[in-house]
Amino acid sequence: MTRALPPADPRWPERTFSHRLMRLVNLIAKPFFARYAEETDLSINEWRVLMLLAAHPGLTASDIAERSGMLLMNVSRAVRRLARMRRVQRRRDPADARRALLRLTARGEAIFARIAPQARRSEESVRGQLSTAEAAEFSRLLDKLLAGLRSQRGNGRA
After folding, report:
1. Is the whole model's pTM more than 0.70, yes or no?
2. Helix or strand or coil: residue 92?
């Protein structure tokens, strides 16, 4: 028997943990992309794909979805558009021809190199709201939450 939570507080959705986490992520990304989205013709999902491929060349779309928590459909759309714009290249996986291994092209690397320093500064600015001890504890707690989700979903990554 599923029990529905009564909305005792009309602000309940805004007070949930998940809503506040999503809001934090969106507030971090919003000013950053207000500056770069039009200039580079990138969506937030495309940027996330670029970041992962810069760090881990040769991932598949499924790998990116697992590592980022994005829906595979959104990753696939981002990859298709990045490939059309010649920012990402696909190569057949020699071990499994059904899979495409993804890498940044020179264009993709140039865009990443241009945006990454500002992304790092933005992250440092957010992290700077916390003391060193708080930042370490927050990082530890995020890792704990991610590990819990991985074990619940049984996929090894969250």
Report:
1. yes
2. strand
